Amino acid sequence: MARFNFRETEAKWQRIWHERRCFNVAVDRARPKYYVLEMFPYPSGKLHVGHVRNYTMGDVVARYKRAQGFNVMHPMGWDAFGLPAENAAIAGKTHPAIWTYENIATMRGQLQRMGLAYDWEREIATCHPDYYRHEQKMFLDFLAAGLAYRKESWVNWDPVDNTVLANEQVVDGRGWRTGAAVEKRLLSQWFLRITDFADELREALDGLERWPERVRLMQEKWIGRSEGARVFFPLSGPGAAPDERLEVFTTRPDTLFGASFVAVAPNHPIAQRLAADDPALAEFIAECNRMGTSEAVIEAAEKKGFETRLTARHPFDPTIELPVYVANFILMDYGTGAIFGCPAHDQRDLDFARKYRLSVTPVVLPKGEDPARFTVGDTAFTEDGTLFNSRFLDGLPVAQAKSAAGERLESLGIGQRSIVYRLRDWGVSRQRYWGCPIPVIHCPACGIVPVPAADLPVRLPEDVSFDKPGNPLAHHPTWRHVACPRCGGKAERETDTLDTFFESSWYFLRYCSPRAETAFDRDEVEYWMPVDQYIGGIEHAVLHLLYSRFFTRALGKTGYLAVKEPFAGLFTQGMVVHQTYQDADGNWLFPDEIAIDADGTQVDATGRPVVVGRLEKMSKSKKNVVGLEHIVENYGADTARLYLMSDSPPERDLEWTDAGIDGVWRYVNRVWRLFEDDRYPVAAPGAAAPVGEPEGASLVVRREMHRAILDTTGHLDGFRFNRAVARIREFSNALEDFTATDDWARLVRREAYETLAVLLGPMMPHFAEELWQRLGHGDNTMLVDQPWPTADAALTIEETVTVAVQVNGRLRATIELKRDAAQAEAEAAALAVPAVQQLLAGKAPRKIIVVANRIVNVVG
Fold first, then answer.
1. From 52, 173, 230, 376, which residue has the greatest number of CB atoms within 10 Å?
2. pTM, entire model
3. Contact 310, 236 (CB under 8 A)
4. CA angle, corner 730, sides to 729 and 731, nearest 5?
């Protein structure tokens, strides 16, 4: 028999689906809706198999829900702004738009070859003016509502590229592209007030029941609600202003009597003021500014401090004076940018105190410890306990001591209980060309002036040059020079563009009505939203997902919509991983550059042995990628799809191997041969049932079919795609062993073959359509339009059950019994077990306890 011709078959069905607009949908209030969405890709170039696992998962869900009768929307688009396009423009002497749209065309073709059930009429690209003009209007509405504002902020600055870098783009203190030492700079930046929604964003996490617990915990930690107190330390010494007080936020006011120092961030106003007259401090601050601004970078760095000539008086005892340091590990934008150090009960403070030979006074006593003998060595005590060495707090448990300290601070007027958040407002300014222009104008007379709505979109100029460092918009000869909309005087456009997370925070709304003249049609949004199933990587757990949750709330506040949570269900898929290879010179090699020599050694093209590295996420930088086109051309899209759904649970990483894809290809052809085998005839479509009921092998297969329907449905509902594939393979194996040819066998074979085709449909849509047609269905009866089968509960019940046999409560054997066997039958079967007979030694049992279909316990 011929092998399955995937090239002809896949091209044919893709054409038919397109011509018949099978996956194009509209609002239909008579049917339940289902919105399935994968996080849209950045158009960086050709896709490899590692990219398409999540798209395949989404497609399985979309096709499955469609078969269940849902009105399914499954769109695709492109997250098309971003720095890589500018880098490509510099490297390849091309325009970012040309590079981007060429990549979109390539990747669209690759996704279409995978047979993904997208409604391509809803396709969007965020770099198109018809998209970003709406987000410019949103920005202006946020500005009017007080949700957008401009302020000075410390940023990572690359002095070679003359641009702001995200924390993730700072590698070992240097710019990821230029390698230049990164500086901290104070720049005017645009922000969105996400902190206004901090409590709501945090509290609403409990309602996201179909989100992974891990993601919800990550967001809760990122929002970071901290209860504590703001404490005022009076300052004295050279450089202190009259009656100056340093405000410190702490979550541990109970440990104030353990304080041995106070410290401020390098960019704290006090530090900046003192540095103006202290060159050594100024140099220390400059050194701190050469670090990145991220918490991860600061936490990993060596803790350093500079002792000022200021002292801080203890709020509870003015006779105690504490040294004031400028320290590199304090963030200016958390709390107040100042701390008091209690070394005995905070490891970072302890390390700092030991380094600078400061006192360590324990004030929290572990349970059972002698207060006269308890000391802290190299490890801070951070557990619960009772207060000591703390005067009015002595003897109180930590929780009560926190409350008592807060009350005393407030009664003395030297502090107040407070709540702060780790979450900071979202800085959306980027000093780059390839992004959405921020629609404001700076006028010397009028200040910041919004661009009139009638003048939107503010389009990017096409005649830009990348031959100078920095933002091409800032040195464009004409684009930024405009007349002020208010006074008509000379003014300049804002040259910053929006963070690309701005685009990805509302694209799911645009899909609902992608050609609307407004950002979206509210009626359509209210029908389709929220997204029922969102699929993407865990790396987006915080920023993208949190920004999107903020965005829907901000749009609600500005009157756009009433939806608060954008994603009802979230699934984070694992990565596709592959071994890495390097030649003797340390250069990365593609898997197809590796050969096997006569003794089995893996070698490169020159015959030199290669270094085989660990399994890692497929990455173009390490070349451990398998090209999607190569797989589709040699195995077909359906074989690739089935492999991506097999072997590994979808939330875990999947190792891609040649042996794995070869095994799936062999299985595909086994099923193909099953449907082509003329030795075992199939009843004609619509054939009447023979007289009576199926018996023997036909009944066994019919029962197996209904159990396969039940199990596969449950696995797909639970996102257990690998188990669904395994169950379908069990079913097809049973059909290979079904050789009966009587009239009932013919009819049952048709039922089973049709069911197998439908069950395979979400995973292998082209293959399943061809199997369906092979069963005699005409062109007007496509599998894609068939309903999902429903299991007959009576036929899913196993005829036999495995029953445990115990003697005096201890398991000795298992036996197979008919379901609901009579008690006498169960007792006789248990007594016939050799192990039971041996233990009874010819004696009659005192009693036998039977738990139907589960246990027989023989009591001797």
1. 52
2. 0.88
3. yes
4. 90
